Amino acid sequence: MDGQTVWSVSEATEFIRTLLDADDVLGDIWIEGEVSNLTNARSGHLYFTLKDAGAQIKCVMWRSDARCLAFDLAHGDAVRAHGRVSVYPAGGAYQLYTDMVLPVGRGDLHQQFEALKAKLLEAGLFEQARKKPLPRFPNRIGVATSADAAALQDILNVLAQRYPLARVLLAPTLVQGNEAPRQIIRALAALDGRDDIDVIILARGGGSLEDLWAFNDERVAWAIYGCRHPVITGVGHETDFTIADFVADVRAPTPSAAAAVATPDVSDLAGRLAALGQQLDGRMADRLGTLRWRLTAASRALQALSPRNKLLNLAQQLDDLQGRIDRAAAGRLQHYSNQLRVLERALGVVNPLATLARGYAIVRRHDSGVIVTNPAQVAPADLLEVRVHRGRFGVAVTDV
User: Closest by alpha carbon to 257, among 143, 159, 135?
Assistant: First the structure.
């Protein structure tokens, strides 16, 4: 490096730009090609790519020139663009600064796309009736995409946030170039041949029509059609459509959206689970309240029909009857007691003992116990028994 000049990037880029700007051919040039990767910026400027089978060149058309276009520039148009070739320093790339665009016709790739689309539509590959439903809660998700692509990381990030319960099985494949269709078919076959796969995501990031052309391959379309597991495509950006999107069971606009379509959101599930829990609690409370009321009513009805109540009622009636008997017996006893006292008083009047108490005695024969009322009933030496008020004693007759 001794003696050589060292340039900065800006200096080298500026030198290249000076060379390009000084070239008479590049300063006034017509270029024919197919429009791809068209972007209509908010500023009104147009950014697109002109391509053919072997190369491509970026183009920019300022708003002042774009407003003068006699037709609406569209993706796939074959055009002739006029302008000058120079360097865009910030991007470090040369591009055609376009001031005029004339239509030539539709590009070959677009024609191929439309022809294949019509063919497969006629063959029934796009029919909605044959599309398979997605599982509500996938356990394992197969992903066919490039292992180095940002699309894979986008999918993994979305799955980690939305549904970390799902496991991911990657079938790496090229997603661009001539070899890509064969690898995509092999990746789909590898995933679809497993019994532990619930759904397959076929994805890649955005790009131009030619960048996404592997997903417009007829062989890839038939491979998707033949999958026994549901297939979700997330290819390109929201405005990009490929043949694979029409054949797939579900088309998502981006790889991230494909991951979102394939899985539920755990936060939504948690909210629904909480709501269902509250609903279940409410229903259980209502059910328990109803059953408690029915139990109380049945208990009351059982108590009303219970033999115990009848026994208690009979016991009370028995107590009432016993009370009535006791009261009747007590009244009867009182009555008899009163009669007894009357009879006692009457008997006391005629009671011999009362006579004995006044000094009289009852004389009986000792041998026969016959009361002696006549002296003729005894003879001398007869033994007699004398009953007096305080007792009795024996006597012998000495004289009649």
Answer: 159
Fold that domain 9-106 belongs to in CATH: OB fold (Dihydrolipoamide Acetyltransferase, E2P) (2.40.50)
What are the distances in angstroms from CA 231 to CA 247, 271, 333? 9, 28, 109
Sign of CA dihedral 174, 176, 177, 179: positive
Indicate the pLDDT class of residue 2, thresholds 50, 70 and 90: low
Instruction: Tell me the per-residue pLDDT of 299-350, one tens digit each, with 9 for 90 and over.
Output: 888 777 777 767 777 777 888 888 888 888 888 888 888 888 888 777 766 7
157: pLDDT strictly greater than 80: yes
Which contiguous run of DSSP H or E holds residue 365? strand 362-365
Q: How far is CA 372 from CA 291, 386, 395, 400, in A?
A: 98, 10, 13, 12
Q: Which CATH class is domain 112-264?
A: alpha beta
Q: For the chain, first and last CA: distance in Å?
A: 198
Report residue 158 as tokens: 């979305």
The helix (H) or strand (E) run that includes residue 201 is strand 199-204
Phi-psi region of 181 (alpha: psi -120 to 50; beta: other; left: phi over 0): alpha
The Cα–Cα gap between 190 and 197 comes to 10
Please compute the mean of the pLDDT values over residues 92-97 and round it to a whole number.
91
- Hey, where are the domains in the chain? 9-106, 112-264, 267-305, 353-396
Distance in angstroms (rounded) separating the CA atoms of residues 259 and 21: 48
